[in-house]
Amino acid sequence: MNVGPNNVTVIATDAAGNVSTCTAVVTVEDNIAPVIACIGEPAPVTDSVSDSPGLPFGAAPTTITSTIDVTMIL
Question: What residues contact 24, with CB distance under 8 A and at least 6 apart?
């Protein structure tokens, strides 16, 4: 159906084969704005983090690993 007034014809047939019709005007309204939900799309995130494990810098090669847990709420 299109938005606005639409002519609708109802046809009823009984078990004996008798037919009756009726025409009415049905008005379709579009009053609700659409909502878009993109499932699986990456969400833009802007954030920063600082970590100071307190390890001294020395002459020997040192590897420092820092783990950040991120929880996404959908």
Answer: 7, 8, 10
Q: Which DSSP state fits 60?
A: S
Nearest to 12 by CA among 3, 2, 21, 23: 21
* Per-residue pLDDT tens over the stretch 6-16: 888 888 888 89
Residue 45's SS3 state is coil
Look at the pTM and tell me if it is higher than 0.70: no
Neighbours of 40 (CB within 10 A): 5
Q: Which residue has the tokens 């049905």?
A: 26
